[in-house]
Structure formats: structure tokens, C-alpha cells
């Protein structure tokens, strides 16, 4: 199954856990792609670890030192000679640092480009890009800046007479 947009993925590192990882692993199985689960110490015996073709230790149970560490994810991918990294949802999936680290290491990042992630990572920035592209957006988007002497009060506390 060759791809028109890039090289065929033969070995995919899944940098996530739980149901998300299990779904990606099942999809890999259907597509004939070898699945490698990058798991923290807390997830080495999880259902996704049993479903995956291989498991590689990502780091300690603390997510900041495993799933949220782009360098650890890239090291794990390199250790198993993975063609690509799938971040799943949450963790680093919307963080351009993992996408950039994968590109630097010559590993395919299954997700948007770092530039796309930067463009839409902040809602106001994403809104300005949508406006520049001529897309319709919901009115608003500028946060109200309160002056020091103003005191916020809930709507029901404001009297109108």
C-alpha cells in the first residue's frame, strides 16, 4: 500500500496510552503496519502493551518525563527504527516541538506540520489566520481588558434602573 503523499510506513511508534493507543494499534494491524507502543513504566502491562507488536519503555510513570518529553519520544522511535510517530490525542499531539523533533530526526510525524500546529495552537492566532484566508468566523475574539478601577460583577448583580 504505497502512499501518494510520502513513504510507506512499515513500523509505527505510538506515543500514547489507553483507548487511543489501542485504536491506533488495531488500525496498524488492519493495515499491516508493525505497531510499537512507547509506554511509561505505569503502562508497560496495559491492554495496549498486550495488543502492540512490540513495546518500548518511554520513561517513568510521570507523564512529564515520558509522554510529554519530545526528546524521549524521538529516542524511543530511533531505538526501534520506527518510520513514523503517532502521538494519539492530547499529550504532544498539538505541540509543534514533537513534530519538529521528528522532522529533524528524519521520522514521519503522523499529524500536521509544525507550522500548522503553531498557526492553530492559539485560538486568537488561528482566528487571525482564518480571517486572512477569507474564512467566515464567529464575531468577537478580542478579550475584554478590565481597568483596575472597574470591578467585575456577574450579570445578575447589575441593576438597570
From TrEMBL:
Its EC number is 6.3.4.14. It comes from the Bacteria. Keywords: ATP-binding, Biotin, Ligase, Nucleotide-binding. Residues 8-161 form the Biotin carboxylation domain. InterPro entries: BC-like_N, Biotin_carboxylase_complex, Biotin_carboxylation_dom, PreATP-grasp_dom_sf. The keyword Calcium does not apply. Pfam families: Biotin_carb_N. It is an enzyme of class 6 (ligase). PANTHER family: CARBOXYLASE:PYRUVATE/ACETYL-COA/PROPIONYL-COA CARBOXYLASE, METHYLCROTONOYL-COA CARBOXYLASE SUBUNIT ALPHA, MITOCHONDRIAL-RELATED. This is biotin carboxylase. It comes from Blastococcus brunescens.
